[in-house]
Write a structure and sequence with these properties.
- 12 copies of one chain form a homododecamer.
- The radius of gyration of chain A is 14 Å and the shape is elongated.
- By secondary structure, chain A is α+β, with helices and mostly antiparallel strands.
- In chain A, a hairpin with a 5-residue loop joins β2 (about 35-45) and β3 (about 55-65).
- Chain A has one helix spanning about 20-30, and strands at about 5-15, 35-45, 55-65.
- Helices cover about 20% and strands about 50% of the residues of chain A.
- Chain A is built from 1 helix and 3 strands; from the N terminus they run βαββ.
- The first copy, chain A, has a single domain (about 5-65), classed as Dodecin subunit-like.
- The interface of A and B includes residues 46, 51 and 53 of A.
């Protein structure tokens, strides 16, 4: 049985906060395949057209290659 | 017409949380001149004299040089 | 009188968010000895067995060597 | 609707120059699925057997997870 | 013919050593599609429940996009 | 006489290439005040709505504080 | 119950190899208090007076603050 | 009242030493507006035409945005 | 006999200069337990209330775990 | 037969562009001894006295120690 | 007598492991001139034509300038 | 005429201070061939057998390849 993990990189979006962007993206990745761990690697953002702060959080996600 | 952006660096303060410090600082910079994007580059802090955690979040902010 | 500071490294855990993990760990370190400042150096996490996001936040904490 | 982005990593090859290697790789990735943004992360290269400089440029490419 | 390479990220596990973890992960990736090169990017680990050191080695692997 | 230099950060835009984006931004900064040196610190970009690669190059520019 | 982890930094020595230096240092730290995880952060070395390669491997070790 | 800090970047010059270059640049910045803190980020230099070492020290300086 | 080294992190303070701050902190650490080596990892500072530059220099110090 | 490579560091100069500076420096190094590979590590520059952008590109070059 | 050290950069090759590549390269450098210390700075590799993992380990080597 | 620069790496030693170690090493390199510029890249040290702090400062030095 393979014990290898894949690491994928995703960017999550939230107007609430950094932690909310992380939660959303990790849960979505987990719905595809069970997430082992994650690492937050970048926190950027922009102002939306209606004046809200939008956080764009880059996360590396580790999952078993073959579940 | 110039398409150049300036990047300025600011540190925002909040006793609520990291995202709150970012929001405050980006909105303040936006009130001076329209913000294009931002990048969170450092998260530090201290304890206030009345025992609260104070977050000090360094943010780089990109804005059109000539709006 | 010595003016030297020690810097210790801790990892705090929270299922609420990154700022909550920082607050918990800095207040705990402060209960041992007065905290001068802190720096957030790593934000990782995992999914708990009941499907919650658990943030693991690494923080460097500066304290006077001799209080 | 998901607002998540995937970030993939590619290395493009060009004997013309760094910008040409970037253009080729981003356009190819865009032909598979619409590219949102890219970041140049490494610039290496070698000499080809007929004595030309070959640029090998590593690029991270962000695309909507579900277009 | 495309000359683009994809770069994927994997974590290999070994209780023998760092080089063994790299070998296992690169050979496994090669069995899927021919590996061009690899880069070791992180070396972590933990103690297993029976007291052995388990190395967890993160490796970036470059492969031709279309073999 | 002060010998201090200020360092400002700008992002230049070009659909031609990275070097072109640098040239544009450094010449523009020089038209305001004489440029001493520059350092390229980030190379990103996006696809324009008409399918061209747009390079966004971040440059730090050193200029005498008082010319 | 506290869920905080301490992170300590150690340098292990081995004339056999990098993995051996890591194993020695992690097992020694574990004999003091149960090790949660470790990260290899630096690999240096010197030649011993009798001409052997001596590896000096810096490792960060995470352990529960209160076991 | 705004609690935001601006961070500016300056390069100081001294033929005496690194600390002297830092002192000169921070005091000069303070004479414009009260300095909160500084960080040394780069130490370079050159030989002057009369054979002296000239230190060029890059410093980031934090000051209250509105004093 | 254990050949393991511990690495501790300290911040030294001096209004004279960076080297003076390093000397003070390394000698103080040596008075507790014999210092093997040190690495300067950060140089920051502030202005004291009477207008002097105060250097705050972070140093990692390696010492034999069991002297 | 030795399979060791030496890595040397050079800075190339060009008023045309970054790729041109790289090409010039790698071909010159190759005329001394066959170049195996190169890595671009820094891109700086200045304005020449006649107002042209001069790129200064730092490149690490790998060559067989004994050809 | 000069106390200056030179630092050279080499890449060692081994199909056995990372530590073996380091040993080979440091001993070879030592046969030219006495090695003071070394630092491992990069670990890459490729698959040989007969399917073996080849480690390519970049090492910085410090030696007295004048032995 | 070649405009290429070589970059060499040296470590200077001083018990006086960091700036003194830099001066010594740059002047020595200049006595061999005219130095264009230098960059301080690492500051370490040890305690000498008679209890003095010895600074070991790593410097990259740029010189015209052909003077």
């Amino acid at each position: 049985m393979s014990k290898t993990f894949e690491v994928i990189e995703r960017v999550g979006i939230s107007t609430e906060g950094i932690s909310e962007a992380v939660k959303e993206i990790v849960l979505e990745a987990n719905s595809e395949k069970k997430v082992g761990w994650f690492e937050v690697v970048e926190q950027r953002g922009r102002l939306t057209s209606d004046g809200k702060i939008e956080f764009q959080v880059k996360v590396r996600i580790g999952r078993k290659l073959k579940d």
